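User: Let's play a game. I give you a shape written as tokens, and you guess the letters that built it. Ready? Here's round one.
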């Protein structure tokens, strides 16, 4: 199969040469052009599989070059990846997509991101090429491989064919091999293991494994086998390559002892680093989600006429999102103040009983919504201690809200206050999901969470219990957790001394966030969009934005519902585009798009797809494109940009503007 050809169009010679070198390193055939005119002629002559097009050119802008390529029938199907300078605005990106670009990147571009984007655009073509190359590779492996290679029947385990390297390695002639089974190559004690391995081949077993083999003279050695199931002369068989790794195994055994101590230390450091990275990703997600709702509804209120009910609903969502974000920011600031030793305590006499009662009153509606019974047992009367009333209420609120969050509907939360000289003891217990033994020692750690994956079911930064411990210790007290295991509830106990610590220094001010949307979205009339998001506010926002551009929208709350919509015909039609969140329970967006791409084309397997997510790191963009999405858009999303992306993916770019 011939190399994939890419035309690289860029005015700046050094940058063009660097990009071309990267592409050639990845195995592509690269043809260069410095002007728009050269590019148009070169594309006609070369007929590449992709055009990498800089927006700024000396004679014709990249947007105009893209429009001409898309207007020409001979070049219209060639994917175009536009690249622009780092000062590009959202409007510039919209212009690029409107001109017909299939994707848009902003300089400086990470090499991994550029390659991932190119591979996403060439996915279908590369898949066909990979299939053909695979067939040729397997044929070449058997006929000319220097490694021992054979084919055996998966039902009878008889050898069907062997190459000369196998004859030389094992000492058997081809005639002897023809009367043997795969068991005859194994030491006697290993035969049960190979039988069990082969019996699981119809299920899921590795395509590479390490075994011990036996030569004709009885010598036993270690091999690494790579196999692939094939049909050989009408029989279900396996094609196997075997590599002698005896020396490597001997060396690995020696190195294992030397590296064990170093590995344990490295694993501990890597675990801490991963925990911090996961925490930062969650911070980004949790801050972007309410920000997306606020900016989106603010744009709707500013740019369209809405009735009173819609306005009231929008204001309610904005207010709720603002409070959520304010609480998250305060948790972050409190954590930073504690780490810097700058948290100030306003020490004075505090009626601890009143603090507990006030916290219960605030959280009572949340408990009633889940039919959770809060039981109070305040057995010390009006106990007065010295401390910071606001911070003590924060301790109680965090423990109580945490218990309510993880207690199922119909459960029970008990709050008890008692004297345990020289302390006052507060106990919050619940009948909730409990804490696993391995996580219990980490429950108060700042960078550890039970579930930090994109399918986690609970929201928040996971800082509440860390703040509880820090605030309790600032008051001179202690806190610990107990649980009999998962689904067996949990108990948190706080011991506070009758005398509090001295106040600390003051803290800084919280940041202010803001932003504005774009106008001039294209018309999406005639486009059927499938929107997937487990958060109701976010799902409603995207639905409203697309409907205002004229799109028909089917909105679902889970990946399973999305698959059901795709595989069910509606009058012979299916959705034209998929707009999916990434972080969802049970099945996240990555798994959803993989299952979609496994569908037949007539069942929606080639539907254009946009990943709309609060995970906005470069690695998240690469992961989304590699999974099968055509575009990755981080929240908060610009309404006009979202509409333009949908229009571009569905072939609506340049066909009129919405209201």
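Assistant: Ready! My guess for every position:
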């Amino acid at each position: 199969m011939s190399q994939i050809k890419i035309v690289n169009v860029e005015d700046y010679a050094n940058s063009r040469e660097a990009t071309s070198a990267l592409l050639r390193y990845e195995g592509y055939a690269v043809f260069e052009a410095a002007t728009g005119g050269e590019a148009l002629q070169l594309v006609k002559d070369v007929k590449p599989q992709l055009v990498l097009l800089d927006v700024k050119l000396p004679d014709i802008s990249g947007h105009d070059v893209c429009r001409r390529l898309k207007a020409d029938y001979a070049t219209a199907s060639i994917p175009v990846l536009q690249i622009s300078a780092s000062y590009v605005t959202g409007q510039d990106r919209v212009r690029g997509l409107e001109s017909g670009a299939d994707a848009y990147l902003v300089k400086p571009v990470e090499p991994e991101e550029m390659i991932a984007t190119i591979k996403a655009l060439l996915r279908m073509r590369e898949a066909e090429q990979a299939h053909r190359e695979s067939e040729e590779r397997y044929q070449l492996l058997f006929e000319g491989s220097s490694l021992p290679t054979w084919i055996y029947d998966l039902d009878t385990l008889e050898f069907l064919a062997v190459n000369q390297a196998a004859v030389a390695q094992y000492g058997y002639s081809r005639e002897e091999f023809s009367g043997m089974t795969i068991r005859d190559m194994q030491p006697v004690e290993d035969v049960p293991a190979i039988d069990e391995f082969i019996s699981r081949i119809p299920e899921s077993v590795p395509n590479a494994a390490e075994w011990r083999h036996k030569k004709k003279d009885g010598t036993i050695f270690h091999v690494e086998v790579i196999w692939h199931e094939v049909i050989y002369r009408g029989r279900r068989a396996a094609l196997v390559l075997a590599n002698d790794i005896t020396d490597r195994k001997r060396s690995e055994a020696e190195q294992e002892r030397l590296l064990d101590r170093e590995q344990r230390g490295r694993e501990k450091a890597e675990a801490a680093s991963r925990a911090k990275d996961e925490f930062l990703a969650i911070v980004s997600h949790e801050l972007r989600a309410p920000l997306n709702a606020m900016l989106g509804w603010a744009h709707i209120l500013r740019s369209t006429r809405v009735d009173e009910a819609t306005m009231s609903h929008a204001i309610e969502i904005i207010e709720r999102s603002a409070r959520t974000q304010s609480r998250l920011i305060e948790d972050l600031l409190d954590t930073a103040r504690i780490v810097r030793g700058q948290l100030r305590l306003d020490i004075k006499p505090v009626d601890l009983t009143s603090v507990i009662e006030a916290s219960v009153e605030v959280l009572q509606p949340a408990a009633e919504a889940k039919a959770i019974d809060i039981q109070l047992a305040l057995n010390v009367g009006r106990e007065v201690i010295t401390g910071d009333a606001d911070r003590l209420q924060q301790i109680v609120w965090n423990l109580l809200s945490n218990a309510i969050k993880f207690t199922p509907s119909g459960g029970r939360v008990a709050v008890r206050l008692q004297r345990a000289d020289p302390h006052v003891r507060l106990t919050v217990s619940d009948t909730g999901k409990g804490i696993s033994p391995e996580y219990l020692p980490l429950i108060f750690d700042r960078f550890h969470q039970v579930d930090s994956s994109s399918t986690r079911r609970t929201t928040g930064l996971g800082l509440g219990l860390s703040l509880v411990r820090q605030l309790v210790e600032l008051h001179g007290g202690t806190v610990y957790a107990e649980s009999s295991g998962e689904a067996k509830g949990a108990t948190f106990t706080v011991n506070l001394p009758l005398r509090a610590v001295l106040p600390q220094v003051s803290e800084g001010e919280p940041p202010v966030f803001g932003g504005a949307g774009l106008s001039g979205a294209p018309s999406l009339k005639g486009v059927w969009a499938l929107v997937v998001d487990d958060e109701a506010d976010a799902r409603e926002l995207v639905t409203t934005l697309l409907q205002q551009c004229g799109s028909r929208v089917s909105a679902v709350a889970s990946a399973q519902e999305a698959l059901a919509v795709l595989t069910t015909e509606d009058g012979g039609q299916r959705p034209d585009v998929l707009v999916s969140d990434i972080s969802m329970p049970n099945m996240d967006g990555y798994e959803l798009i993989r299952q979609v791409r496994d569908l037949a084309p007539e069942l929606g397997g080639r539907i254009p797809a946009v990943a709309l997510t609060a995970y906005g790191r470069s690695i998240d963009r690469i992961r989304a494109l590699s999974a099968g999405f055509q575009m990755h858009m981080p929240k908060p999303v610009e309404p006009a940009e979202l509409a333009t992306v949908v229009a571009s993916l569905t072939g609506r770019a340049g066909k009129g503007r919405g209201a």
